[in-house]
Amino acid sequence: MPPSFWPFGRSKDAEPEQSLIQKIDPHRIPQHVAIIMDGNGRWAKRRGLPRVAGHRAGVQSLRRVLETCEEFGIRYLTVYAFSTENWKRPADEVNALFDLLVEYLQRELDTLHDKGVQIRAIGKVSELPENPRKELERAVRHTANNDKLILNVALNYGGRIEIVEAVKAIARQARDGQIDPERIDEAFLNRHLYTADVPDPDLLIRPSGELRLSNFLLWQSAYTEIWVTPTLWPDFGRKEMIQALVDYQGRDRRFGGVKV
Ligand code: IPE
Ligand code: IPE
Ligand code: MG
């Protein structure tokens, strides 16, 4: 249950899906939605199942949400699948997560490709175990020319290390006399992030009620609208996504300015 001060959205069953859909303004669909796919472990625990069963159920949610994004014309979907801190988990769980990734890519690649989905990865992908890394590279290559929806999978991703890596790359260029440090600005640093050619997320969704970013898109989410729901990721579906879109469209994005 959400805490009593819960400031986000309405409760899950407050409004039927059909009436929610009618509230969506097709001209103000967020261009980029980011999701922290959290709560798989709790979902499994509540059912007396091993954590990996929760991760498996979470894959189904990704499929549903991707379909909903296609339906509403969302251009970029970034999903947090494995953080740089998730290596702290037991090896069995980490291995199971990568096995699921391989299984997902092998099973879904053709369907995703047919739908015009372009798969990309952000994070220290080079440090992933060989099997998931190769499968991911294959999926990225295979879908590289698609442009209907960009599915950005954050794997071995950390917002801080992303910024550190950008700073290192820029420092090298300065050391070698290729750039003048005075000319470094926000756009320049942005071009050195994993998300260089992706617009900042408009909407960031966190299921399972946690009120934190957990090192996700720290730079990019400076002015992102955050939407949190107590629903656990394996229970998250079309309805939750629609509710998030409706609430997003009700927000007043000021970017530090004032309303005229
Ligand atoms: C998110 O679910 C999946 C990953 C972090 C890979 P969790 O496994 O974190 O689920 P909870 O937070 O323990 O419920
Ligand atoms: C964030 O969830 C990472 C992913 C969903 C991949 P965590 O479960 O790892 O985050 P914390 O530990 O609750 O902050
Ligand atoms: Mg978690």
Automatic annotation (TrEMBL):
Residues annotated as binding substrate: 39-43, 51, 55, 83-85, 87, 89, 206, 212-214
| Residues at the active site | 38, 86 (proton acceptor)
Q: Which GO terms describe its molecular function?
A: ditrans,polycis-undecaprenyl-diphosphate synthase [(2E,6E)-farnesyl-diphosphate specific] activity; magnesium ion binding; manganese ion binding
Q: What is its EC number?
A: 2.5.1.-
Q: Gene3D superfamilies from the entry? A: Decaprenyl diphosphate synthase-like (3.40.1180.10)
Pfam family of the protein (one): Prenyltransf
Name the cofactor(s) required for activity, per the record.
Mg(2+)
- Per its UniProt entry, what is the enzyme's top EC class, as one word? transferase
Cofactor binding summary note: Binds 2 magnesium ions per subunit.
User: Which residues of this UniProt protein bind Mg(2+)?
Assistant: 38, 225
Which PROSITE patterns would you find in this protein's record?
UPP_SYNTHASE
Which top-level group of life is the source organism from?
Bacteria
- One CC-aspect GO term: cytosol
Q: Name one GO biological process term.
A: polyprenol biosynthetic process
What are the alphabetically sorted keywords of the record?
A: Magnesium, Metal-binding, Transferase
Q: How does it assemble?
A: Homodimer.
Role played: Catalyzes the condensation of isopentenyl diphosphate (IPP) with allylic pyrophosphates generating different type of terpenoids.
Query: Which HAMAP family does this UniProt record tie to the protein?
Result: ISPT (MF_01139)
Q: Which family does it belong to?
A: Belongs to the UPP synthase family.
Q: Which PANTHER family match?
A: DEHYDRODOLICHYL DIPHOSPHATE SYNTHASE 2, DEHYDRODOLICHYL DIPHOSPHATE SYNTHASE FAMILY MEMBER
Annotated protein name in UniProt: Isoprenyl transferase
